[in-house]
Amino acid sequence: MSYLILSLIAMGFALIPLPLFPSWVVVAYMVVQFDLRFMPAILVGALGTTAGRVILVAVSRVAGHRMLGSWSRGNLEYLHGRLEGAAGNLGIAVLLGASPPPAGVLFVLAGLMRIRLWLVAASVFVGRCIGYIISVGGTSLAATHLAEKLRGVVGPWSVVLAVVIIAGVLVLVLRIDYRVLLEERRLRLHRGRR
To answer: Please, which residues have CB within 8 angstroms of residue 24's CB and are 6 or more apart in sequence?
Structure first.
């Protein structure tokens, strides 16, 4: 039952595109608190995170495509076309596997760009397995104390701030003219409808 709870919590963390404290803290806390075996907890946590991220990408793919204007859709299609192929897929896989903050924006963008779900799933699973092994293995005991301290940090204002930051980053990323960036090597932001 503890493994199922761990999987659901990891999935919930991955579904929310807000910067929360790292999911490895939850895995480490569960390993220590519920005396879970290390490798099964890592695999279950990674599977839960993978499921959550794949769902986030799928929802972004469906909902986002309807919400974007024609310029934004064309811009993202151009970027997706440039990233097609072995080198682009490897770059996407590494980026999604490592998923530096704000990771939620990366996965929303992956959905908007219609990145293949198998690539998202494989990248997240491998990245989380490696990350959890390093993080949880090195800090299981410290995670209990860290989780206690982080509980007091998350409140209504921190959630509002996180939503504003995520929305700002997403708007910025969607306004970058990728054709100009990749072909002319200069940054230009799209300002309105075209």
So the answer is: 45, 131, 132, 135, 136, 139, 143
Q: Considering the domain boundaries, does residue 191 fall inside one?
A: no
Say if 56 falls within a structural domain.
yes
Q: What is the pLDDT along the chain (194 residues), one digit of tens a residue?
A: 889 999 999 999 888 887 777 788 888 888 888 888 989 999 999 999 999 999 999 999 988 878 888 888 888 888 888 887 767 778 888 888 887 656 788 888 889 888 889 999 999 999 999 988 888 877 655 555 655 555 555 556 666 776 777 778 788 888 889 888 888 888 888 876 54
* Alpha carbon separation from 57 to 51, 54, 158 (Å, rounded): 10, 5, 24
Question: Which residues lie below 8 Å from residue 23, measured CB to CB, with a gap of 6+?
Answer: 10, 13, 14, 45, 49, 128
pTM of the model as a whole: 0.79
For residue 68, the enclosing domain spans 2-184
Evaluate whether residue 139 is within a structural domain.
yes
Q: Decide if 173 is inside a domain.
A: yes
Question: Looking at the 3D structure of the chain, how many domains does it have?
Answer: 1
